Amino acid sequence: MRLTYWIVFIFFLTNCxxxxxxxxxxxAGIIPHEAIANHAMKLLKDPLLSSLSIGVTxxxxxxxxxxxxxxxxxxxxxxxxxxxxxxxxTKTLLAVLVSQAEIExxxxxxxxxxxxxxxxxxxxxxxxxxxxxxxxxxxxxxLPRWAPERVGDLFEDIDSxxxxxxxxxxxxxxxxxxxEDLKQLTIxxxxxxxxxxxxxxxxxxxxxxxxxxxxxxxxxxxEKIASKAQMSDTRITPNEEQLKRSANGYDMNGNLTxxxxxxLWGGGGRAKSTPSDLMNYMTFLLDPENxxxxxxxxxxxxxxxxxxxxxxxxGYFWVLNEDDIFGKKVSHHGGAYGMQNWLHIYPxxxxxxxxxxxxxxxxxxxxxxxxxxxxxxxxxxxxx
Length: 384
Fold this sequence. Notes:
Beta-lactamase, seven-stranded antiparallel sheet
């Protein structure tokens, strides 16, 4: 009895003395520049990483910092205007456009996608349950990860030649072939019940949004996002001047590699942007009056865990979660052959963080995410 008493007492005392993490609220806004730089330089000791661009916006205060060099030994430090592939973070641009179309009454999340397709697609259903727009947005449409599907087979042998093998297929794959393949697909699960990441579905969404507005994805980005957010360098197809500012990308072994190609619509991951544009994009996304953005953070799928976190939910392509200190977390990762980046948005605390590097290593995305966690810890220290 005496032993039990002491165990209970020690447990009670320990828990009473353990401080509850203090939430950071709007109105704080201190950005720890030096601490961010220290963590960045530690990460650049990794032999595969040569450069980092970090952007933080917090309660209206902004901080962009660049570290290392784009090409080792060339002393060419990245700048605010360096053009990077942002890969699947492109999907967040598409998310805002779909949200905008929904607000304008041009589509409903409960529309059968065949409403927007020409021809016979009786196969795009499972036991009379059709694929809806919301299923494309949440990767629950039971569509393949890649278009064309055979690209996925290449990942059985991952090496430095993988980008070249993928590009060989993608450079020859047309929009007409995309729709022919779409007619041959078999939907093997009730749409909306199973999460399976699909750039195939994202390309289909891009086709639908282009059809609704009778404009290209590039035109819609420019008109409905870039012009409002001052993002003059964010495009699917960069011009010649932007190409001259493009960072070289390096592969899993640290060797120079190629950029992604595609003849499809581009929503799956073909946008290019700059640290300056990404900073302005975060400000755009954090504006509480920006209904197309805030609407895209609504939960559309939470039936089962995905991406290794039981608390993950899906918004309009966004991965949604909750941070104990910074509140609602809205994020997306982008990985190209030679580049990796993360975009984190915390609407409750008016905080956004973007990190990008020109290395496409298999573990680089995780390293960048860990860097963001360290930045969050430093922000918490100085604002609590």
